[in-house]
Structure formats: structure tokens, C-alpha cells
């Protein structure tokens, strides 16, 4: 799902190791949770651009899952 493999590579070079599947799954789940919370907040506050941006993020996460 990464749209910026260079950023992933930079993160992993500093982190010192690749992320195993359980950690990747956890990060995906937390990203989805954060996106859902942000969409809810955005709708309540009339921030439609935020809602759309995080909706796109949720669709990308969903498409990346087997």
C-alpha cells in the first residue's frame, strides 16, 4: 500500500529492521481506527476535505488486504 517506498525505506533504515507481519497488521489496524475517528470528527465539524482524504486512506488499506 505504500505510495512512497522511499519513506518506508528511510523509516526502516533508522528503525533498524523490517516489520514482521504482526506489527504490520497492527499498524494497519491502528491506521484504520485513526482514519475512522478522523472521518467522524470531520463530518461533525464540516471538514469535508479531511473526511474525503481519510476515506481514500481507508479504501487503500482495504484494497491492500488479501
In short:
With 66 residues, this protein is mostly helical. The protein has three helices and no strands. The protein has a domain of 46 residues.
Report the helical percentage: over 70%
**Number of E strands:** 0
Distance between the termini: 12 Å
Low-pLDDT sequence parts: none
The rough form would be described as elongated
What series of H and E elements makes up the topology? HHH
- Mean pLDDT, to the nearest integer, reads 92
Largest sheet: none
What does this protein structure show overall?
It is built from 3 helices and no strands. The chain has 66 residues and is mostly helical. Helix 2 (21-44) packs antiparallel against helix 3. The longest helix has 24 residues, at 21-44.
Please write out the topology:
Blueprint: H1 5-15, H2 21-44, H3 48-64
Helix pairs in contact: 2-3
Descriptive labels:
3 helices; mainly alpha; 66 residues
Amino acid at each position: 500500500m505504500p505510495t512512497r517506498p522511499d519513506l518506508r525505506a528511510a523509516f526502516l533504515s533508522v528503525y533498524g529492521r523490517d516489520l514482521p507481519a504482526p506489527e504490520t497488521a497492527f499498524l494497519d489496524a491502528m491506521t484504520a481506527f485513526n482514519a475512522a475517528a478522523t472521518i467522524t470528527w470531520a463530518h461533525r465539524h464540516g471538514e469535508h476535505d479531511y473526511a474525503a482524504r481519510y476515506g481514500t486512506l481507508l479504501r487503500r488499506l482495504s484494497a491492500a488486504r488479501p
